[in-house]
Amino acid sequence: MKKLFSTILFLGLLFSGNAFAKEEVLRCDLKFAPDEPGMRAEVEINLDKKMLWFDGDKYNIILLGDRTIKAESANGNVKISIDRFDGYITFKAASSNFIGYCKKYNKIF
Questions:
Q1: What pLDDT score does 44 carry?
Q2: Which of 84, 23, 85, 32 is CA-nearest to residue 54?
Q3: pLDDT tens for residues 12-71?
Q4: CATH code linked to domain 21-104
Q5: Alpha-carbon dihedral sign for residues 5, 7, 13, 18
Q6: Domains of the chain, residue spans
Q7: Which of 64, 97, 101, 107 has the fewest CB neighbours in a 10 Å radius?
Q8: At 61, is the secondary structure helix, strand, or coil?
Q9: Structure confidence by residue, pLDDT tens digits, 72-103
């Protein structure tokens, strides 16, 4: 009986992990300067794979903190930082810097 219970407990713990981790999708409104018209971007985050996609471009998550997620391109030229509480995002590249806010984005239908 003890062996059966420990086997059931082991299997329960083995399969209780989040095997189907979904990606979080954010819709971001970004601006180059305060008086410039804004642009819209879509950000997908997969925390298990430590990957972030910004409008289809792939970035590696280098810091996954309680407050901030930081990602950068493979060559390190582009850096992205997202505040996990208020959605404040900074996008820094060699030729441009954007700031803005993101919010969760869900399908309507």
A1: 94
A2: 23
A3: 655 555 555 577 899 999 988 667 778 899 999 999 999 999 999 999 999 999 999 999
A4: 2.30.29
A5: negative
A6: 21-104
A7: 107
A8: strand
A9: 999 999 999 999 999 999 999 988 889 999 99
Q: For residues 26 and 79, give the distance between their C-alpha atoms in angstroms, rounded to a whole number.
A: 17
d(CA 79, CA 32): 15
List Cα–Cα distances, 1 to 14, 44, 78, in angstroms: 20, 47, 58
Our measurement of the distance from residue 15's CA atom to the centroid of its chain's CA atoms, rounded to an integer in Å, reads: 25
- Whether residue 8 has pLDDT greater than 90: no
Distance CA 106, CA 109 (A): 9
Residue 8 amino acid letter: I
Gap between the Cα atoms of 60 and 25, Å rounded: 16
Other residues' Cβ atoms within 10 Å of the Cβ of residue 102: 22
- The 8-class DSSP code of residue 38 comes to P
DSSP state of 75: T
Q: How far apart are CA 100 and CA 83, in angstroms?
A: 11
